Amino acid sequence: MTQAEREQENEKEKEQRGIKRPIAPPVIPEPLQEQIQSNFIVVLHPGSKTLRIGRATDTLPATVPHVIARRHKQTCQPRYEDGWLVREGLNKPESNEQRQNGLKMVDQAIWSKKMSNGVRRTPVSAEQARSYNRLIRPAGLDTSSRMKWTTTAHHPEHLVGEEALYVNPTDCYNVHWPISRGQLNVHGGAGGSLTAVLADLEAIWSHVIQKQLEIPLKDLKYYRCILLVPDIYNRHHIKELVNMLLLNMGFSAIVVHQESVCATFGSGLSSACVVDVGDQKTSLCCVEDGVSHRNSRLCLAYGGADVTRCFFWLLQRAGFPYRECQLSNRVDCILLQQLKETFCHLDQVLKHQRIKGDTPFLHAQLFSLFLQDISGLQDHEFRTRFPESPALLYQVRLGDEKLQAPMALFYPTTFGIVGQKMTSLQHRSQGDPEDPHDEHYLLGTQSKQDQSSKASAERKSLPKPPGFEGELSSQGGDPSERGGGAHGQDVELGHSQNDCLMGGAEMEEPPSALLSRKTAMTQFEGKALGLDKAILHSIDCCASDETKRKMYSSILVVGGGLLFHRAQEFLQHRILNKMPPSFRRVVESVEVITRPKDMDPRLISWKGGAVLACLDTTQEMWIHQREWQRFGVRMLRERAAFVW
User: Fold this and answer.
1) Contact assessment for residue 613 and residue 619, using Cβ atoms and an 8 Å cutoff
2) Which partner for 500 in 47, 169, 504, 558 could form a disulfide, CB atoms 3.0-4.6 Å apart?
């Protein structure tokens, strides 16, 4: 009997005695290489306020308010509605004092600059406008053009988009915005569980796919999906979204990619500091050759909606003639958003010199703006058209309010938000039972020496304790992000980033030093950085001076929260004034790009997702439905283009 036969005989005897061989973990197969038609790829970019979705071959996506109204299951059920412009931290005892202090800084910045004619601006007090606006009474317009509430006589289970926005408050419907500040809107109120939020998203996306894209849901098995996610993401939420798209909705395959990287694809830039000013959050990230530098990721908990609310507060100080306006009223929020987009600008807070750049974007469609003088008080008019109410025409006189509101993005204490986390950083994964070979496993199997050097490098990348006016500096970074793959450890900035579960160098660190670092991180996350300071901080976190020079030369602003006249030039001016002197000498030009290829900045990330669908390298990133069913979240670690 040969050796091989004897071994085979021994194996049979072991099995008969009940001794089983160890089962090797299943190996993830290599990605399939196949020809894919772009018109069968759906690009999905979900935002806090707006959903953008379309085929990769579409010129423009379908743009829908990301809101759903669900019918009450019981007749006596209390009505619930997610806030749009209302948020936590606004009605604290310190809120008004903080607003006033922020407004003083804004006024100082405005009055210290010269207007385009070289003359220094004369301050205009709110009292001057208030005395006029108090006397204003609205004029009635044609009553035949009244708007109507959404018809609910047929008792639909849910309504989506514009129909949900105009549901009558007296009807038995709850109104939900399933995404808030870039993350799933999980809360303790009605419809706030993770299961309910995912059901809302599935209902909205399914409705739009059927009605706007005209794709029957039963045909989604022939389609693939590209999902754009925030740069600072919640791993558990992303896993649940992928599960919903592949298993519940039935897409055949999916690619998950970050918004900032897609923004560079959409704008045609190889490297940029991407500043995404959305409705409820502002995210920043430095992208180089299609890779998001993890240490540069930053998310600020304010956006265009906060500017709208600040503008309303300023209007009230000036005696706003539409006195019934309420932040809790959905249709009033729509009106305030339109007023902000029409009236607000940054035209008169620039110095006399012009800075070369793209033509700025002015978003003003619904109202006539009468500019009578470049300084002082100006008279405007606006119309209110509400369901079951006559259309009214108002006159309003405004001074500096149009400049002060957008300036709050650079002095966020003006928002009056107290006791809230204002800055978010990517935290280390807490682990997932479906993915036992995650970064915690890799960290635990490292040698003690490797752990010590890793922890030392991470400590260097931590931001310093907040200094004057929150101007923070953070050095370091790890170029290993570019490696990707299963062995790349995405140990992110965050107060828990050095919490080594398996021991290591951190355990040898004195408790006082550890407490000091964690206190500094907590203070950093509670600090409301202005937009210009956040950009400087993000760039300063890049690993090399060469990368920093690239980022200063290409600051890409996307999203709909900074669509104010001359915003591009104003931001450029702020960066030039505040950037470190050492870089002023070596950076040829600081360029702020707001409309690459003359595109709407709100669509650039979605367009980048469409470009991604056509790239050859995307073939390696597809996660197929069967693979997800078998391997689960491991597929994201293996196939995602960023370190999971």
Assistant:
1) no
2) 504
